Amino acid sequence: MRHLLTYMRGYRRQAFLAPLFKMFEATTELLVPLVVAAMIDKGIATGNKPYLVKMAIVMVLFGICGLSFTIFAQYFSARCAVGFTAKVRHALFEHIEALSFKELDQLGTSTLITRMTSDMNQVQNGVNLTLRLLLRSPFIVFGAMIMAFTVDAKAAFTFVIVIPLLFLVVFAILLASLPLFTKVQARLDKLLTATRQNLTGVRVIRAFTMEERQTAEFAARNKALVRIQKFSGRISALLNPLTYVILNLGVLYLIYSGALRVNAGLLTTGAVVALYNYMSQILVEVVKMANLIISVAKAIACGNRVNAVLTMESSLDEHPHISEDDVKTPEELSQIPGVEFCHVSYRYTDTTEDMLHDVNLSVRRGDTIGIIGGTGSGKSTLLSLIPRFYDATDGALFIDGRDVRTFPLVELRKMCGIVFQKSVLFTGTIRSNMQYQKADATDEEIWEALRLACADEFVKKMPDGLDSAVAAGGVNFSGGQRQRLSIARSLVGNPPILLLDDAASALDYATDAKLQKNLDSLPDKPTIFLVSQRVHSLKNADRILVLEDGIVVGEGTHEVLLECCEAYREICASQGVKEVGA
User: Fold this and answer.
1) Residue 334's pLDDT band (boundaries 50, 70, 90)?
2) Domain boundaries in the chain?
3) pLDDT for residue 581
4) Is the pLDDT of residue 324 over 60?
5) What angle do CA 182, 185, 187 make, to 5 degrees?
6) By the 8 A CB rule, do 284 and 69 touch?
7) What are phi and psi of 224, to 5 degrees?
8) Which residues are bridge partners to 528 per DSSP?
9) Strand-pair partners of 362
10) pLDDT by residue (tens digit) across 63-75?
């Protein structure tokens, strides 16, 4: 949590002025009981009306000053809290964007969303209340006790007993509540995970009529969240009753002893009223402090969760040191492979077996490498190593004779046009989506990429062309249209390496063949890595890799693999391709 306070820079003035004005307001509040006591003893008791009017005007002035101080304090505290939270949220999002897939897999999407939204709202509320009440409430509590001593020292000893008891109760409940609020947020993560999965997979749930089961699972997680919230709420709910009991007992004793001393002529009526007002002020402020402590406890728990993400370091070095040996001349580049895997293995976090094992592959520039294999054979993992979404656990991967770990990530990923298995489009327009690969891409470049991806046909038919709206996820397009737009996006800017991860699975054979022909006809043809489950999409590739349980069990052209690779023959047989050249 302490690390988050560094984002308070730029708001130090507001963080100083907010409690300062609250202290001014508290000072006016502490003076009011003395004015009331004077009005009773010197005005009402003696019938001095001019004095009463004078003191009434003083009270009105105190009220106006207190209101003004409060408005200033509220303004500065709100500005500081909102600005601080905005900076932390921006830093959190930026940091998440910089994390590798390894850390994102480890954290999970749902918990990141919770920390970005719910947790940050709790932190903002905690900062706001802290600036307004953290100094004000103790100031009034101890100030009221000191002022009580100026009124009557003997009666003020009641405050000396009551205030420590109140603080004991408050801090005991704080220590009990803090770990519970952390558990509440963890249960909220689980509930959000279930909600996200159900909304994402709603079609699958309905297709298999699993609504009742999913409703039951959601209800169980919701019940667990409610249970821990009720438990923490019961503990927090003890705060107000206990503080009221202690303070009211103090008030009863104060009035009783004060009445006896007034009858004995040792104390004035106004002094008793002033002491009662000071005790009432303490009551109000302790209740405020109790609520503050609960809010601060939640804010600290949530802040620690946010801080845990901010302090998580990416396993990727984004700005590695570049040596002179890494820079190759054009003559040297012509003699070395464009992409080369040297004994590459990769193992996911918390697994005991390699997803990829000892992959060796040398690819010339402009070659098309097809990759095929069963589900879970490591095809997508292999592609993810090239742009360094993951770093190989063993071995090394080279592009243009240079270890990918020596490339700055921005430079490396600009070299790669990437289409994932799931086509993702973002809210905006077709043009804004096409400019993801190259921010300053012209309309001519975009239309050329659309033509190559066989997407220009349906885009031209849309009334607004490149300015046509794209809904979140591209849900206003069919699966095939989304894939073609995703492929076009990867082609904008003519990247030297093109990674197509089952990118044409929703395309018919004719469109798929036309896409392959367009890519082969490029004057500066990129090095293409093409993952597909369809043999027809790969059989014209320069080479095909056959993966089985993360191991390359076959490598060669379609014809060669049909003759010598049993796994490839089985795949071909399952798709009706049984003869060489078929």
Assistant:
1) low
2) 11-310, 331-415+532-582
3) 44
4) no
5) 110
6) no
7) -65, -40
8) 368, 498
9) 340
10) 899 899 999 999 9
Whole-angstrom distance, CA of residue 512 vs CA of residue 297: 58
Cα gap 164→262, rounded to integer Å: 27
Q: What is the pLDDT of residues 335-390, one digit of tens each?
A: 678 899 999 999 988 778 889 999 999 999 899 999 999 888 889 999 999 999 88
CB 48 within 8 A of CB 41: no
- In degrees rounded to 5, what are phi and psi of residue 501? -95, 90
If one compares 81 and 473, the residue with the highest pLDDT of the two is 81
Q: The tokens 């490591």 sit on which residue?
A: 378
Q: Which of 176, 173, 151 is nearest to 246 (CA)?
A: 173
Q: 546 falls in which pLDDT band (50, 70, 90)?
A: very high
Q: Give the distance, in angstroms, between the CA of residue 173 and the centroid of all CA atoms in the same chain.
A: 30
Indicate the CATH number of 11-310 among 1.10.10.10, 1.20.1560.10, 3.40.470.10, 1.10.3720.10: 1.20.1560.10
Residue (of 305, 304, 300) closest to 111 by Cα position: 305
**C-alpha dist (Å) from residue 291 to 15, 133, 174, 181, 369:** 20, 10, 10, 14, 63
List all residues 6 or more positions away from 263 whose beta carbon is below 8 Å from its beta carbon: none
Other CB atoms closer than 10 Å to residue 262's CB: what's the count? 15
Q: Which region holds residue 469: left if phi is over 0, alpha if psi is between -120 and 50, else beta? A: beta
The helix (H) or strand (E) run that includes residue 522 is: none
Q: What is the 3-state secondary structure (H, E, C) of 76-128?
A: HHHHHHHHHHHHHHHHHHHHHHHCCHHHHHHHCHHHHHHHHCHHHHHHHHHHH
| Cα 25 from Cα 40, distance rounded (Å) | 24
Report the amino acid identity of residue 370.
G
Range scoring the smallest mean pLDDT among 168-177, 218-227, 462-471 = 168-177
Distance CA 357, CA 13 (A): 57
In 474-573, DSSP assigns E strands to: 497-501, 527-531, 543-548, 551-556
Q: What is the pLDDT of residue 578?
A: 62
- For 462, other C-beta atoms within 10 Å of its C-beta total 12
In this structure, what token pair is assigned to residue 415? 């070299």
Residue 330, pLDDT > 80, answer no
**Residue 555 near residue 543 (C-beta atoms within 8 A):** yes
Tell me: the pLDDT tens digits for 17-65? 999 999 898 888 888 888 888 888 787 877 788 888 888 898 899 889 9
pLDDT digits (tens, 9 = 90+) for 75-122: 999 999 999 999 999 999 999 988 888 888 888 887 888 888 888 999
Number of residues assigned to the chain: 582
CATH pick for 331-415+532-582 out of 3.40.605.10, 3.40.50.300, 3.40.50.720, 2.60.120.200: 3.40.50.300
pLDDT at residue number 453: 92
Three-state SS for 349-398 is: CCCCCCCEEEEEEEECCCCEEEEEECCCCCHHHHHHHCCCCCCCCEEEEE
